[in-house]
Amino acid sequence: MKFGVVVFPGSNCDADCMHVVKDVLGQPAEYIWHKSGSVDGFDVIILPGGFSYGDYLRSGAIARFSPVMNAVYEFAKAGGLVLGICNGFQILLEARLLPGAMRKNKSLKFCCKDVYLKVENVNTPFTLKYEEGQIIRIPIAHGEGNYYCSEDTLYELKANNQIAFKYCDESGEVTDEANPNGSVANIAGICNKNGNVLGMMPHPERCAQKILGCEDGRLLFESIVLHLQHKRGV
Amino acid sequence: MYQARIYITLRESVLDPQGTAVRKALDAMGYDNVKDVRIGRYLLVDIDTDDKSLAESQAHDMCKKLLANPVIEDYKLEIVKLG
């Protein structure tokens, strides 16, 4: 089992992801430079947070045309696991591996704080260690996390159970007040129809160890490991 | 040489938080007849060709692939001969 953490110019959560996978979970992992044309030999690809290409034009728009993204696209289409966190989520949207787009936060402010999420779908390789409806606390840090999709797409997301996480309050109520950025339907994270590609704005890698005050994000990475172990019959 | 002058704005169905903030500021300044403000991008793309229709079709391709995101944005463009 090998994790790959893609590094774009401007990525800044790559080392955090590497730390969680390698040091906290004890799994083999390597960085993949954005100019690499291949992701052969990897079982999971993580697109980390940051400001790839300075967020020029639109967040994720230019990174999506990095050489490595062709390989990631093929990898995802073949069923490989791809996790996009924050800027990684924006890149997945721009690459059309996930539906929808990001707008500037409704408040127009960069929002950096802990939020509560409701786990809506535990039947994905990324969420299987959570309980359905579980409320978790995870930090966000973004200026463009205001998820948008058409009504038709939203209908499809719901019908196919593709909404993985929703912003909620501490008691689990999905309210406007608990929506930090104006996202449609309080969406914090979605997966593709097959469930092998997940994008989320909150940062699970920033809350995967007790020493950081919260480890609700750790289960996401442990879910991936468990999924791959099952797949290999371990 | 042709220049593509490309205007990109958020689609009408998409709330434009920046535009809304500017409209409110204009309203506070006394421009109470401003009904809507949409903020977008303006790109000037110089294309080295003598073939206007080629420049135009290339510019449309660029918009669809990279310069605009059709999920949330509309674009329009004009092609102008340079020099």
Briefly characterize the structure.
Chain A has 234 residues and is α/β, with parallel strands linked by helices. In chain A, 23% of the residues lie in helices and 24% in strands.
Report low-confidence residues of chain A grouped into runs of 5 or more: none
How much strand content do the residues of chain B show?
A: 25-35%
Note the main sheet of chain B.
3 strands, antiparallel
Radius of gyration of chain A: 16 Å
- By helix and strand content of chain A, what is the structural category? alpha/beta
CATH superfamily of chain A: Class I glutamine amidotransferase (GATase) domain
Structural descriptors:
heterodimer, A: alpha/beta, B: 83 residues, alpha+beta, Mth169, Chain: A, 3-stranded antiparallel β-sheet, 2 helices
Write up what this structure looks like.
The complex is a heterodimer of chains A (about 230) and B (about 80). Chain A is of the alpha/beta class. Chain A has one domain: Rossmann fold, CATH 3.40.50. Helix content of chain A is about 25%, strand content about 25%. Chain A has 5 helices and 11 strands. In chain A, strands 2-1-3-4-11-10-9-6-7 form a 9-stranded mixed sheet, sandwiched between helices. Chain B has about 80 residues and is of the alpha+beta class. Chain B has helices at about 15-30, 50-65, and strands spanning about 1-10, 40-45, 75-80. Chain B has a 3-stranded antiparallel sheet, with helices on one face. Chain B starts with a strand and ends with a strand. The mean pLDDT of chain B is about 95. The interface of A and B includes residues 100, 103, 104 and 146 of A.
